[in-house]
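User: My advisor asked me to double-check a structure prediction for Sporulation protein YtaF before group meeting. I don't want to rely on an old file, so could you generate it fresh from this sequence?
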Amino acid sequence: MNWIENLLILVGISLDIFAGMECQGSLVAKIDKKHLTLVCGLIAIWQLAALYIGNVLAGLLYINDLARNERFIGTVIAAVIFFCLGVRLIVKAIKNERVNEHREENLGFKRFWRMAAVTSIYTLLTGIAFGFLGTNLTVILIMIVCLTIAVVIMGTYTGYHFGFEHKRKAYVGGAILLWIAGFDVVFRYAMM
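Assistant: Sure, here is a fresh prediction for Sporulation protein YtaF from the sequence you gave:
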């Protein structure tokens, strides 16, 4: 896979984090840069670990010297993962869970353990898909850390200034990007 395809996928899964951070940013009275730095570090490391573990799991399930039919199965599984992750984001957009609006003094640190754990499940699945597609792990890991830090900061400040009105758009945008990547995998890799 080339870097544009990888970027599409990683931005797609990162928009889920953006929406969560937008909700958290809408609740704070003032953004404390120390707390934001800690949250960025926590979520970035968690995402990095989940993507790496997913890729390792795929490596255990999928050996590079497989026959053509087995490679085809791996690419189909990767495409299904991307389509299912997109459907999950659409369901979240339709569900549009309400945010318990109450003022927080700062972003804190403890609230983000649950969010990091839940999003890392989907990042783990993405790592498995990347493993089946044989992508360069080093590039992916660098990209996920940079994107995670960027979406945490952008989501927090978007929520702080504009509220949590844009979370549905983030979910739909992420789903579209993941579906585009899924179709790309089907047409480029599975049809070969």
